[in-house]
Design a protein that fits this description.
The chain is mainly α. Helices cover 44% and strands 7% of the residues. Bound molecules: heme C (2 copies).
């Protein structure tokens, strides 16, 4: 499926891009205040406190990594985000994340609001109403994704999203958006991260579909 050499090389590049902005998301926040903001801003209409799903393509936030939630909301807040080189590195990483509803929902949030919302959702238990049929064995190629995303409840990174137990339609949409060229019209969801090229290189659509279904069938993280 993937040539090992290429994969290791891409992984080290991807990680160096990824680790660059680590100091942007300090994991602090007040979950109680976050709950109030979620209620006042209508977040519960789509991302319920119990993690119950309200529609296809709406992600679970409950139990997700706090650092990742901060990043995701910051991306929506700014739409396009450029990390400039730090610590002597000269490259830039451009991240795009736009969605007609989320861009509006996050547009008026302050940095403290974002931290508090993330602290709230990260500390709630996820509670999916019904999981897709469990796929017992991880499909070939999943071991690469596991380096960053872990398996069920085992993601070792503070800012990498859990995929386990996530809504399958949401995962499928995100992979499609992340793989599309940045210049392409993407409808409701527009997402770009240089890491994506390394994440999905060498995988066919069928491979990815199997991996996504596998992740969606795992227990949610908390
Ligand atoms: C009308 C429904 C709706 C409302 C209201 C809403 N969201 Fe969302 N949210 C979505 C959808 C749909 C997505 C997936 C967007 C995409 O495709 O990129 C999403 C994505 C997210 C994500 C990214 C999750 C991930 O795994 O990357 C976060 C974080 C989030 N929402 C937080 C919030 C917060 C906080 C609020 C309230 C301020 C809110 N949302 C209000 C529908 C909604
Ligand atoms: C080098 C680390 C790394 C590897 C390996 C990796 N990913 Fe990712 N992945 C990330 C990061 C970082 C993000 C968040 C990107 C962003 O928000 O812009 C992400 C985001 C995602 C998302 C969106 C999650 C969400 O909640 O919105 C999906 C789906 C995904 N990856 C699937 C995969 C699959 C499938 C594989 C294996 C084929 C894989 N990734 C391999 C680092 C990685």
């Amino acid at each position: 499926m993937l040539r090992r050499l290429g994969r290791n090389f891409l992984f080290s590049i991807a990680l160096s891009f990824f680790l660059l902005p680590a100091n942007e998301a300090v994991a602090i926040g007040d979950p109680e205040r976050g709950e109030g903001i979620a209620r006042d801003h209508g977040c519960f209409e789509c991302h319920t406190p119990s993690g119950e799903l309200v529609g296809d393509g709406v992600p679970y936030l409950t139990g997700q990594k706090q650092g990742y939630l901060i990043r995701a909301m910051t991306y929506f807040r700014y739409g396009e985000y450029v990390y400039r080189g730090e610590r002597g590195q000269s490259h830039e990483q451009v991240v795009v994340r736009q969605h007609w509803h989320m861009s509006e929902a996050a547009g008026s949030l302050s940095i403290q609001d974002i931290r508090d919302l993330a602290a709230y959702y990260a500390t709630q238990s996820c509670n999916p109403p019904s999981l897709p049929e469990a796929t017992a064995v991880a499909p070939t190629g999943t071991e690469f994704c596991e380096i960053c995303h872990g398996g069920a409840r085992s993601n070792p990174w503070s800012e990498m999203p859990y995929l386990s137990g996530q809504d399958v339609d949401y995962l499928r949409m995100q992979v499609g958006a992340l793989m599309a060229p940045v210049s392409e019209e993407q409808g409701d969801t527009s997402r770009h991260n240089r890491l994506a090229e390394a994440m999905f290189r060498g995988y066919s659509e069928d491979d990815l579909e199997e991996i996504i279904r596998y992740y969606a069938s795992l227990p949610c993280p908390r």
